[in-house]
Amino acid sequence: MCLDSGNDLDCSNPKVEKKSCLSVILQIAKPMTLLDAQPYDPTKARRRNIRIASAMVLVIVLAALAWFYRNWPEEHAVDKFFTALQHQDYETAYGIYFNDPGWRQHQQKYSQYTYADFYRDWGPGGEWGLVKSHSIYGSANTKGFGGGGVVVEVIVNERTEHARMFVQKSDRTLTVYPY
After folding, report:
1. Terminus-to-terminus CA distance in the chain, angstroms?
2. What digits encode the pLDDT tens for the residues 123-174?
3. C-alpha span between 179 and 169 (Å, rounded)
4. Rounded-to-integer distance, Cα 129 and Cα 122, Å
5. What's the rounded Cα separation, in Å, for the pair 16 and 9?
């Protein structure tokens, strides 16, 4: 049934003028223009603005977290190294130093800096003595030194002079930062 001026028209009836049924269909399916737009709904607009603001805040917070923790893997490696030194587990510390937990199977690979040299440098008679406490002070990226890596500053035994460890980004090996 078609509706035309409040009258019911049966468009399937051949006696009904096709023109009146077509006008009814065109009125119902008429495209919307700017003047026919829905009225402004302030609550809907407010919800949309809140969603946009929330998304922007979320993106900013995630970007800030990514920036603050950009060197976390390298800081974690240095923390594990000093924790092993603090527990006087020098063999584990040596494995962390070269990022090779199975270093005992191929000691000839590290002939330039042997375990004896490492123990002399990092053991009880080394520059830092027995490590009783440590904390990560901060870290910074380096571009030119050693092909790119991170320098991690560590407070060892509450000393004012900080230990500076260089962590190679490509293979996570450690060394003392010379500068």
Report:
1. 90
2. 998 888 899 999 999 998 887 665 688 999 999 999 989 999 999 888 889 9
3. 18
4. 7
5. 7
C-beta of residue 143 within 8 angstroms of C-beta of residue 149: no
Check if the beta carbon of residue 75 is closer than 8 Å to that of residue 136: yes
Amino acid at 132: K
Angstrom distances, CA of residue 114 to CA of 122, 176, 178: 12, 15, 19
Q: Dihedral through CA 111, CA 116, CA 120, CA 121, nearest 10?
A: 30
Q: How far is CA 133 from CA 6, 88, 138, 145, in A?
A: 90, 12, 16, 28
Distance CA 68, CA 136 (A): 14
The reported pTM is: 0.70
88: left (phi over 0), alpha (psi -120 to 50) or beta: left
The 3-state DSSP class for residue 71 equals coil
Cα–Cα distance, 147 to 83 (Å, whole number): 27
